Amino acid sequence: MNCFNRRFRRTAPAHGSSKSELVPSKTPRINGWSWPLQPLQVVGWLVLIYLTVVTFGVFIPLLPRPWNAVSYAISGISFLFHFFTNIATVTIDPADVSVRAKNNYSTPLPLFDRAKQAHVIQNLHCYLCDVKVGPKVKHCGVCNKCVEGFDHHCKWLNTCVGQRNYRFFFGALVSAILSVFMLIVVILFIFVQHYLDPHILRSAPQFDTMLANTTWLLFLPLAPVKTSSAGLLTLAFITVLLCTICLMLLSHLLGFHLYLFYKGISTYDYVKRSRQKEARKRDSEAKNSCSSKPHSSAQTSPEGSHHCEPTLSESPSFFRFTNTSPLSSRLSDSICTEVTLENFKKSAEKENSFNYGTENPIQSETSKHLTSNILAYMNYIY
């Protein structure tokens, strides 16, 4: 055993704090309307408003009867259903019942301190919310509260999706796919008929006074606005492109949640299992890489492997000795143990003064300790 071929990794503590301190954090969020709003949430609402305007103000009024009435009914129901389920998902507080009964969301909760507890929730008790929770409750770091039946935190809705609002989330997802798909079908029909038989799209009474076939009316029948064929087709192309992107994203999300239904797990469980699988794979690759390296210290260099631990320092050659007897093996084990304990002890005492790019006082103390042990060993030998 050669204890000088190891180095103990440490990370710098947070600036101005130590392990024993709790840094105040933001106030827990109530729902998706809590400030600040997420950029993706704003983008989602802008896209919804745009698609609603062009659906009911531009494209459906151009359809001939009775297809315009059918499109108004199907698109209207799907859009209204999506709107109310979206509002319900964002408005409902997904927090656990014990959190909702205790919290008034007016005082900030502390950040989690692993020096005091290994996990945020232990033995069905959350040390941040300070409440008893159920077995399926998880503490969301973004909302800073325990969520009942936690599935995931959605940036598009700016809230957590849990047991209390998951059904509304799923309903909003399905209705959004139906609405977007219906709009694509309507636009494709208008695009084809614009070249085959444009008169079928000009059945509204407002077109009777217009002689030119290249002029089209938008926002029928309440506020007609004239535009050209190029303007109408450009608007249709932009809308179809946006709808295609939305349909691909929403369909992928729906397929993923149907897969979760089939497996009987949540998004959180899926992500957790994936990370554990990746960690096991990296550990296996690291072990295989380390086992394939020569065990002789003369053939191993500090920069020879990205997975194995490099040496503690560039020690002189007389510091390196080989365990050729049981006595030297015991002394080496003893020295290594003392070095380890001394290293961790000094690290804990000097943690607040640890900075990158500066000399670490722990290393100087450890080097002195190593030197004294080696000299004692050499005196014992000679």
Helix content: 40-55%
How would you sum up the major sheet?
A: 3 strands, antiparallel
Secondary structure: number of strands:
9
State the shape.
elongated
Overall radius of gyration: 33 Å
How are strands sequenced across the largest beta sheet?
1-2-3
Q: Class by helix and strand content?
A: mainly alpha
The average pLDDT value, as a whole number, equals 76
Number of helices: 8
Query: Low-confidence parts, pLDDT < 50 over ≥5 residues?
Result: 1-24, 300-341, 343-368
Strand % is 5-15%
What is the element string, with H for helices and E for strands?
HHHEEEEEEEHEEHHHH
End-to-end separation in angstroms reads 22 Å
Domain Palmitoyltransferase DHHC: 122-273
Pfam family, one: DHHC
Enzyme class: transferase
Transmembrane segments: 42-63, 69-92, 168-192, 232-262
Describe the structure.
With 382 residues, the chain is mainly alpha-helical. Helix content is 49%, strand content 7%. The protein has helices at 39-59, 67-91, 97-102, 166-196, 229-263, 267-292, 326-349, 361-381; strands spanning 121-122, 125-126, 131-132, 138-140, 145-147, 152-154, 159-161, 215-218, 225-228. The chain has a three-stranded antiparallel beta sheet. Helix 2 runs antiparallel to helix 4 (166-196) and helix 4 (166-196) packs antiparallel against helix 5. The longest helix has 35 residues, at 229-263. The radius of gyration is 33 Å and the shape is elongated.
Provide the descriptors you would attach to this structure in a database record.
382 residues; mainly alpha; three-stranded antiparallel beta sheet; 9 strands; 49% helix; 7% strand; disordered N terminus; Palmitoyltrfase_DHHC; Palmitoyltransferase; transmembrane
